[in-house]
Amino acid sequence: MRRGYEAHPPHAGDVWHPYPLSTRVGNWVAALTLLPELASPELSRSLCGSFSGFRVNIEDDVLGNHVIRNARALVLGGTSIGAAI
């Protein structure tokens, strides 16, 4: 699975902006909750890399909706990644 974080490391651009990144992390955690057979070491590494990318770049400039999305992903990602480590 080189399509994840390893194949596309963080860089400037919309894909690595905190809002879509936190949306992706939250959606992957939800998908893995529903379909645990999707889990793999590669996906875990990719999620950890993605999670690390936005945890230091929380948005607080757009009336709160972005910071809420970031917080959701931090909680979900922290809970799932913490359980996986």
In words, what does this structure look like?
This protein is mostly helical and 85 residues long. 61% of the residues lie in helices and 0% in strands. It has helices at residues 18-34, 41-55, 65-84.
Brief write-up:
This protein is mostly helical and 85 residues long. The protein has helices at 18-34, 41-55, 65-84.
Order of helices and strands: HHH
Query: Share of helix among residues?
Result: 55-70%
N→C terminal distance: 20 Å
Shape call? globular
Characterize the main sheet.
none
- How many whole angstroms does the radius of gyration measure? 12 Å
Structural class based on helices, strands and sheet pairing: mainly alpha
- What is the number of helices? 3
| Strand elements, count | 0
**Approximate strand percentage:** under 5%
Average per-residue pLDDT, rounded, comes to 76
| Low-pLDDT residue spans | none
List the helices and strands and how they pair.
Layout: H1 18-34, H2 41-55, H3 65-84
List keywords for this structure.
mainly alpha
